[in-house]
Amino acid sequence: ENIKYEVSEGIGYVTINRPKALNALNMDVLTDLYAAFTEIEADETVKAVIVTGEGKAFVAGADIAQMSQLNALEGREMMIMGHKVMNLIEAVEKPVIAAVNGFALGGGCELAMACDIRIASEKAKFAQPEVGLGIIPGFGGTQRLARLVGKGMAKYMIMTAEMISAAEAYRIGLVEKVAAPEELMDEAVKVAKTIASKAPIAIATAKSAINNGFDMDMKSASKFEIETFTAAFGSEDKTEGMAAFLEKRAPEFKNK
Ligand code: HXC
């Protein structure tokens, strides 16, 4: 009910579906998101995932009405659940693209940042407005924003709570592409299909090497790359990919 999930031509579409509350994330939505990504993880037919929001918002944040009723311990539980969801999205061995159709505020911006790639509609707006509510970003935002746009810009956004346009989000590296509103989904599907046409083990390995290596020192990260590279190099799809190049034909990857 809170999430629409469908698979079409190898792409999983996850749509947050609470448009009346601008897709605010309450505990039920977080639980459904976790379930959807658990299913995605196990489904071999899904090669790429697109996350978007129903209506005018991507996600306008964690549910303020629900949070207002929670004490500190209960708020912490909600935060832990949010972290579980974002960490699962980040760890799932498939590319996840956020198609940011509108407001991506607070937990919504954090959800977009947990995805691998962000494509924004020209109408999208981004902010971490939590300090205006007496809290701070709690679904990983203080960490992922600083890693994506740098410490200074993350502090600027989090401390001022300023809402920024898609163009500004693109300028600071918070989104990778901007599309006209009516072209957003086509653009997201195009990127998803491009990635889905590559060797799945290579894509999963690249995601893991980048994500895990980013949190390591350079020496450990280099070592990690060598280990993950070796796994991809031993795959059947490596044999197929290189043979296809040499035989001047398109590869047929088998995810093996
Ligand atoms: C609950 C929300 C909501 C939210 C919007 N709504 N955002 N409900 N939680 N985060 C509800 C409104 O109450 C309203 O319900 C309906 O959605 C439509 O919103 P409006 O405000 O009437 O729309 P508009 O005037 O267009 O303004 C849009 C908006 C504004 C600028 C996005 O709604 C807004 O500022 N929302 C809050 C954004 C925010 O602060 N997000 C961060 C949350 S903290 P009714 O019933 O009146 O129609 C967070 C922390 C994460 O995310 C970590 C926590 C552990």
From TrEMBL:
Pathway: Lipid metabolism; butanoate metabolism. GO terms for molecular function: 3-hydroxyacyl-CoA dehydratase activity. One of its GO terms (biological process) is fatty acid beta-oxidation. Keywords: Lyase. Its EC number is 4.2.1.150. It holds the Pfam family ECH_1. Homotetramer. This is short-chain-enoyl-CoA hydratase. It comes from Emergencia timonensis.
